[in-house]
Amino acid sequence: MVQEVVGALVGAGCAGLVYLAAAVRIVKQYERGVVFRLGRLAGEVRAPGMAVIIPFVDRLYKVNMQIVTLPIPAQEGITRDNVTVRVDAVVYFKVVDAANAVVAVEDYRFAVSQMAQTSLRSIIGKSDLDDLLSNREKLNQGLELMIDSPAIGWGVQIDRVEIKDVSLPDAMKRSMARQAEADRDRRARIINADAELQASRKLAEAAQQMEHTPAALQLRLLQTVTAVAAEKNSTLVLPFPVELLRFLEKAQQGPPAPPPAGAPGRASEQTAAPAVEGPEESEDDSALTPVRSAADAVSARPAVPAVEE
After folding, report:
1. Segment Disordered: which positions (predicted)?
2. CA atoms within 13 A on the CB side of 249
């Protein structure tokens, strides 16, 4: 009799342990438990910790409340300016309502993935290529709003959407490279032209200063000779400015020399004959030089008195 009672107690204890093991569920800190009793949502969402359900009657679904990183496969589309591109992105979202995430949608991960792909293709068709390359923050915000609007009813909140990469055709890459090179060439030409303009203004000011002080031009010429000679060249090409010739000509000009006092005939001849200015003589004057010398010699002899018969 005692053995039967002990056996019954042991059997009841084992049944209780099996029932307890089937009824007790552990919900982790980052999870929430949704209980369905005979197919209907029963009570509130179970908090983290130990949750007790009725075995074979209740069914517990655990929903992860962590932020999920969902990569969006690369989508190929045509931009508004008729450029074919491939764009891939990543979506960060989390479940804020565990009951709706289980009841309102069959698979919220798959639903968010499909919505993200559709929204990404729509964004590609509405944007220009320049916006995809340089204005990604605005596109990210628009893409986030497009995905978040239907996801609110699923108990899902979109935390962030980022466009990862934009793939362009090789021909478009070469065209953009040529465009960038041409733009840099244009800016280089503008900078060179501006430098030439500033240099010309400074040179004009220097020319005006040298015009009032001709000695400065001579000093500048000597500096140029020194700079060229420092290179130890065998041939030296030196420009000779016209202004220097004018300066030397003015320096050589002086007051006219007075006529000699002991030669009256020559003085009268010099008075009668006009002086020829300039260092150069004409061919006629050089030919008449011996004749003039003979005439001067005759005029210098003493006069012989005539004898009357």
Report:
1. 251-309
2. 7
